[in-house]
Design goal:
Layout: E1 10-18, E2 21-30, E3 33-40, E4 43-51, E5 56-60, E6 63-68, E7 71-76, H1 80-97, H2 101-124, H3 127-136, E8 140-144, H4 146-173
Parallel strand pairs: 5-8
Antiparallel strand pairs: 1-2, 1-7, 2-3, 3-4, 5-6, 6-7
Length: 174
């Protein structure tokens, strides 16, 4: 009689950052071991294989970083999103300089669509399941998602407004 495997199993499909470029990669959790595979010219190769308990997994927005033995391995769900984000930021800056609010709004909408697309790619690539399986397998896991990043950005913006207001009031009253 066989028994079901109660150890978690999950795969995250994305792209591994190597020297400024990205190659297709899969990070897999199986039987409490983590394996990172990358596509090389000769085919799929193992980048590392280690007990999950020896791997630190951090995730921000659409990325997962695996650290083992002092070496970090960055994985992106959609590496093209980085270049698109830079393009939308540049377009928004140019629109602001040229006083073109409609073009600025179009850049903002494009940036939002890009973020949604990257988040969707992270989810479709198995990000949530991979983090859950890594946690259950004993890896140290931390996640900072889009909500937390937006909250930090908004909080920082509010703090800047408050500081500028206080400094302005102090300068006017002196």
């Amino acid at each position: 009689m066989t028994y079901p495997n109660h150890l978690p199993h999950a795969t995250f499909s994305g792209a591994l950052g190597i020297g400024g470029s990205y190659v297709p990669a899969n990070a897999e959790i199986a039987d409490s071991w983590m394996t990172l595979w990358a596509l090389a010219p000769e085919g799929w190769v193992v980048v590392f294989r280690a007990p999950a308990s020896e791997v630190t997994v951090t995730s921000r927005a659409q990325s997962i970083h695996l650290a083992v033995g002092g070496v970090k391995h960055p994985l992106l769900a959609d590496p093209g999103a980085v270049n698109r984000a830079l393009g939308y930021t540049t377009a928004g800056t140019v629109a602001a300089v040229l006083d073109r609010p409609v073009a600025g709004a179009a850049a903002d909408v494009g940036a939002l669509r890009n973020q949604i697309s990257a988040a969707s790619a992270w989810s479709a690539g198995g990000g949530p399941q991979f983090l859950d399986a890594a946690r259950q397998s004993g890896a140290r896991v931390s996640r900072l998602g889009y909500g937390a990043i937006a909250a930090i950005g908004c909080g920082s913006g509010i703090a800047v407004v408050i500081v500028v207001t206080v400094l302005t009031v102090l300068a006017v009253n002196l």
